[in-house]
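Help! Submission page says 'invalid entity' but I think these are all valid:
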Amino acid sequence: ETGVTQSPTHLIKTRGQQVTLRCSSQSGHNTVSWYQQALGQGPQFIFQYYREEENGRGNFPPRFSGLQFPNYSSELNVNALELDDSALYLCASSLARTQETQYFGPGTRLLVL
Amino acid sequence: AQSVTQLDSQVPVFEEAPVELRCNYSSSVSVYLFWYVQYPNQGLQLLLKYLSGSTLVKGINGFEAEFNKSQTSFHLRKPSVHISDTAEYFCAVSSIQGAQKLVFGQGTRLTINP
């Protein structure tokens, strides 16, 4: 059984650019959540996808968007990057939308210059 | 809405000493409670969780936590720590209904000194 994987591991972008981060959920999991973890902070919920539909969103602007594919993998897209978007982006999967336990990937560290 | 407060940002202890990491939460609805650990440059690993039942929960690596509903606390304990326990620890809650959105505390950095 493979765990949650994310790519790339590190990324450097400049302000105003767009970025796409990818996540493969744990085998059998149909729900994916994304979190942003700024340096020295706890993770903050961005949004959740269940069966290819957004199923809840945190306090993030519309330039943060996502997709979930039929195989339950997911993408996080961020447009018009700002310096404050520099963070570790974590993906977590769970067995079902109502399943309480989320399993996290290693994260993608994004630096915006 | 929920919020989580981890009362100590840093906790230094000596190896083989006991440790307690404190977590208080606020919520208008019933919640599940979690402790996650984050080793340097890694993602989050689930240590333990409280869903219902016994208020004393045992997790991996010898950690345990006690849910206290009246004090809205979920403190993490270990009777004897090792150098390998050096990491960042996060307390989190999620509502028992709706989308399983985890709300995290700011984290507690546990440093073990030899």
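Support: the input was valid. A stray whitespace character was the problem, and the output above is from the cleaned input. The longest strand of chain B covers residues 87-95.
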